[in-house]
Amino acid sequence: MDADIDRILIPRDAIARRVGELARQIVDDLLQSPDPSVRKPELTIVPILTGAMIFCGDLIRQIRLPIRIGLLAVSSYPGQSVRAQGANFLGQQLGDLSGRHVLLIDDILDSGGTLRLVVPVLQSLNPASVKTCVLLRKDRQAARETPVDYVGFEIPDEFVVGYGLDYDDYYRNLPEIVTLKKSVFAAAAAPAGGTE
Ligand code: 5GP
Ligand code: MG
């Protein structure tokens, strides 16, 4: 697995620091909200599976408020694709969101298709508020033009894996955000039985 890494874009200690900052900002914003329903501050965290799983696990352990978790599975980069194919719902287990402050969490903001698909669905479930948080935002116009409340890191418009992000469902367990060597993709593109 390590032999497939081209470059480490974000090391694990930088991720940990930034996740702590995001958690503090999310809590501060909720506590300072003028919304009268925030007298008893609580959150429902909705990570988009599978990519946001690791980020969510680290983030919520820095949030010392009562939280619930709802789950949403969306697919946009099926299998060995490295460009978004359009976001699709795969499943959900959201619970009752009515009157709840919802924080939607995704791993990366790229074309914006996922947030455009999911945010209106959450808003239709009568929550007190919906905010969005992504660990990474790619340096491309579509990403910059998509509204989002919290961004961990701005990254170049490259395909990255690690810390939850996959290629062909692998590499999610890498603790850093990395790019992969070209040979990884070339091997996948080779016809079955090829020698490269
Ligand atoms: P969007 O819907 O904004 O185009 O992309 C969001 C989803 O596409 C992410 O949740 C992620 O699953 C996938 N995605 C976008 N860019 C990358 C990338 O560089 N690497 C990986 N592994 N997935 C990506
Ligand atoms: Mg994903």
What does this structure look like?
- There is one protein chain.
- Helix 1 (12-31) packs across helix 2 (53-60).
- The chain starts with a strand and ends in a 7-residue tail after the last helix.
- With 196 residues, the protein is α/β, with parallel strands linked by helices.
- The strands form 2 sheets. Strands 2, 3, 4, 5, 6, 7 and 8 form a 7-stranded mixed beta sheet that branches. Strands 1-9 form a two-stranded antiparallel ribbon.
- Strand 7 (129-138), helix 4 (141-144) and strand 8 (150-155) form a beta-alpha-beta unit.
- The model has no long low-confidence stretch (mean pLDDT 92).
- The protein contains 5 helices and 9 strands.
- The radius of gyration is 17 Å and the shape is globular.
- It binds guanosine-5'-monophosphate (5GP) and magnesium ion.
- Guanosine-5'-monophosphate is lined by residues 48, 51, 76-77, 84, 87, 106-114, 159-161, 165-167.
Strand content: 25-35%
Shape: globular
Number of helices: 5
The N- and C-terminal alpha carbons lie at a distance of 17 Å
* Helix residue percentage: 25-40%
Total number of β-strand segments? 9
Structural class: alpha/beta
Q: What is the N-to-C succession of helices and strands?
A: EHEHEEEEHEHEEH
Contiguous runs where pLDDT drops below 50 for at least 5 residues? none
Mean pLDDT: 92
